[in-house]
């Protein structure tokens, strides 16, 4: 039943009740009281059902876009430098091109330039995307290149999937932090040893470049909004259609079902690459894709702690907890992988999948950068909140990473 049909049915029942009350005054009061109770109970029931369905739709969107994000992160990382490490290069269809680019490095080879870390391009790209879909105001339509009354502007699950899952899984704070910690320690690189200066520059470059990318995304968003929704910028223009067109039930489920089919195809390709080609990278990928939604959902739940610190209500506690815990998990997995404490190819692939999927999606750079910029925008230029949040996150995660990683690689082996 469509929304219009439900509204017509409700009006008809209301009219029948009113006529009955007029014809039977003695029973009218009892009927009105009973009808009110039933309507209230029905409203509560409908609200619970709606919230339950909405929650599951959000989880579906988060899972789908987490898989897309972690897939993009892995292949973009390989494209810009991951395949330049002869010990970790993946000899597949991408290798003939990717092993020649070598813009970034993982800090474990003879190649200098570890400040340009492996995940720098994806952190830039993810920060740009979240800036594009966030814009300069929360009052703006969520999708900049569509009209304000387009049905997708009301799809909250899609918006959550893009901002929280796609951008959060595409960017990663934990892997970035783990590479900087690995470079500071120096044990994993027999060629260059300790690279403290490069690691410190890696933190600064990673932070500043992501902020610039976020601002670029917001600027491009405003250009599209000005084209699609000019009334946002010109007070003389009137919003011609103030009511958002609603999808029917078939349209409501169309987007998640379509994306779900795409994810099934991605999993099938990874399993095919693992079984038919025998490439361990694709085994790591389907394990990472299974783990990524768990990391993203955990981060999503932790975000409810933002603003809950009574002493510092401005501090995004939930995001910091996600990045801090993700950095610990990633540091442990990186150290265990380096020492080969887990025997067998399957165990190594599981460790890589956990690091890439769960720890990588649990942490985020895009949201971290967005919150830093918004703290700067909301407060006077001399205020220290944005500076304190951004560098406290980096310093605390760096410290705990060194505290966890160094003892394992130096003494546990």
Q: Layout of SSEs?
A:
Layout: H1 3-23, H2 25-80, H3 95-98, H4 120-134, H5 156-170, H6 173-185, H7 196-228, H8 249-275, H9 280-302, H10 317-339, H11 345-362, H12 366-378, H13 385-412
Helix pairs in contact: 1-2, 2-5, 2-8, 2-9, 4-5, 4-7, 4-12, 5-9, 5-11, 6-7, 6-10, 6-13, 7-12, 8-9, 9-10, 9-11, 10-11, 10-13, 12-13
General description of the model:
α6 packs across α10. It is built from 13 helices and no strands. The chain is mainly alpha-helical and 413 residues long. The chain starts with a helix and ends with a helix. It is globular, with a radius of gyration of 26 Å. Helices cover 70% and strands 0% of the residues.
Low-confidence stretches: 1-5
What is the number of E strands? 0
What is the radius of gyration? 26 Å
Instruction: Assign the structural class, choosing from mainly alpha, mainly beta, alpha/beta, alpha+beta, or little secondary structure.
Output: mainly alpha
Strand % is under 5%
What sort of overall outline do the alpha carbons produce when their principal axes are compared?
globular
How far apart are the first and last residues' alpha carbons, in Å?
65 Å
Helix content: 55-70%
**Total number of helical segments?**
13
H-E order: HHHHHHHHHHHHH
Mean of the pLDDT scores?
85
């Amino acid at each position: 039943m469509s929304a219009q049909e439900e509204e017509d049915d409700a009006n008809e029942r209301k009219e029948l009740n009113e006529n009955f009350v007029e014809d039977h005054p003695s029973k009218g009061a009892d009927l009105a009281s009973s009808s009110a109770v039933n309507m209230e109970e029905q409203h509560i029931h409908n609200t619970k059902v709606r919230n339950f369905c909405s929650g599951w739709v959000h989880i579906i969107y988060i899972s789908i876009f987490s898989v897309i994000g972690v897939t993009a992160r892995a292949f973009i990382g390989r494209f810009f430098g991951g395949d330049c490490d002869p010990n970790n290069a993946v000899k597949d269809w991408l290798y003939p091109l990717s092993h020649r680019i070598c813009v970034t490095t993982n800090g474990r080879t003879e190649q200098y330039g570890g400040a340009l870390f492996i995940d720098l391009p994806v952190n830039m790209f993810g920060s740009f995307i979240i800036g594009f879909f966030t814009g300069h105001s929360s009052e703006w339509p969520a999708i900049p290149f569509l009209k304000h009354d387009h049905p997708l502007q009301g799809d909250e699950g899609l918006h959550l999937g893009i901002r929280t899952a796609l951008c959060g899984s595409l960017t990663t704070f934990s892997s970035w932090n783990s590479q900087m910690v690995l470079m500071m320690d120096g044990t994993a690189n027999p060629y260059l040893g300790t690279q403290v200066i490069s690691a410190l520059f890696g933190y600064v470059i990673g932070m500043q470049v992501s902020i610039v990318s976020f601002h670029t995304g917001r600027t491009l968003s405003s250009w599209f909004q000005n084209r699609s929704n000019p009334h946002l910028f010109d007070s003389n223009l009137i919003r011609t259609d103030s009511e958002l067109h609603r999808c029917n039930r078939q349209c409501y489920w169309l987007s998640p079902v379509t994306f779900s089919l795409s994810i099934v195809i991605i999993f099938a390709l990874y399993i095919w690459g693992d079984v038919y080609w025998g490439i361990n990278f694709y085994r790591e990928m389907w394990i990472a894709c299974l783990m990524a939604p768990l990391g993203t959902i955990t981060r999503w739940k932790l975000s409810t702690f933002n603003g809950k610190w009574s002493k510092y209500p401005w501090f995004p506690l939930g995001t910091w907890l996600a990045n801090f815990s993700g950095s610990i998990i990633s540091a442990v997995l990186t150290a265990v992988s380096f020492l080969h404490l887990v025997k067998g190819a399957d165990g190594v692939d599981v460790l890589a999948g956990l690091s890439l999927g769960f720890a990588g999606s649990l942490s985020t750079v895009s949201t971290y950068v967005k919150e830093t910029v918004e703290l700067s925008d909301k407060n006077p230029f001399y205020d220290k909140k944005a500076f304190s949040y951004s560098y406290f996150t980096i310093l605390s995660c760096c410290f705990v990473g060194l505290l966890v990683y160094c003892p394992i690689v130096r003494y546990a082996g």
